[in-house]
Amino acid sequence: MKKLKRSARLVDMTQYLLARPHTLISLTAFADRYQSAKSSISEDLAIIKEVFEEQGIGELNTLAGAAGGVRFAPKTRKDVALERLLSICRQLEQPDRLLPGGYLYMTDLLGQPAMMQELGRMFASAFADRDIDVIMTVETKGIPLALAASFFLNLPVVIVRRDHKVTEGSAVSINYVSGSAKRIQTMSLGRRALKEESRVLIIDDFMKAGGTIQGMVDLLHEFRAVVAGVGVFVESGEVAQDERLLHDYVSLARLTEVDLKTRQIKVQPGNYFNSDSK
């Protein structure tokens, strides 16, 4: 790359960091890229760090030593996330989204890249300090959320199948109980898809009693893997606590009321916003 003026260097360096979240980048790499002294690079990074924190974009952490450098951790301020999530809740409350059984139609929202980026950043903020190796979701509606979170956490995604595919090779399959009707279903994961003893973050689009997520937890036991966290986009608030199979999770939104007769829906921010931390 040709030598850039400082203003251009700041723009390019910012874009470089944003495109590589949770990646350690040495000062030497930046110095070589911009043909500049490390002291100048350090000054530029201090400016970017200040802007990132003031604007709630994330944190720029410095690691000292010969093997050190900087690492960008995307985060979103709770007040900014709450404002956006409230807008999403209003969309979820549209009467024509109500489906039989009290479920919500969300496929159109899950297909919006900008919204997925926002939700993915929220998940990344919630789990930024966890020790995680991989993100897991079950096909199909959880995939956009998992992929969005995976970008901001810089982690691979593992997709659990409802039915075993020949292209997955040998697999582990389990039966699990799903839905209020207590139906027995099957989920499968290829043996090559997940290393044993991995630390896994589970992401899903909707949780009622938690049967599907509990199925993924049980599947992880077959790989001797550890559940490092669970994140859901929308949880149902109409399930009694003693009926819920899962209690340790982060939800972005909460379905608090569904009236099938009047088709009235109420959605509120989830437990992610219960904390007073930024």
UniProtKB/TrEMBL annotation:
This is Purine operon repressor. PANTHER family: HYPOXANTHINE/GUANINE PHOSPHORIBOSYLTRANSFERASE, PUR OPERON REPRESSOR. SUPFAM superfamilies: PRTase-like, Winged helix' DNA-binding domain. Keywords: DNA-binding, Transcription, Transcription regulation. InterPro entries: PRTase-like, PRTase_dom, Pur/Pyrimidine_PRTase, PuR_N, PurR_Bsub, WH-like_DNA-bd_sf, WH_DNA-bd_sf. CDD domains: PRTases_typeI. Residues 5-74 form the Bacterial purine repressor N-terminal domain. It comes from the Bacteria. Belongs to the purine/pyrimidine phosphoribosyltransferase family. PurR subfamily. NCBIfam families: purR_Bsub (TIGR01743).
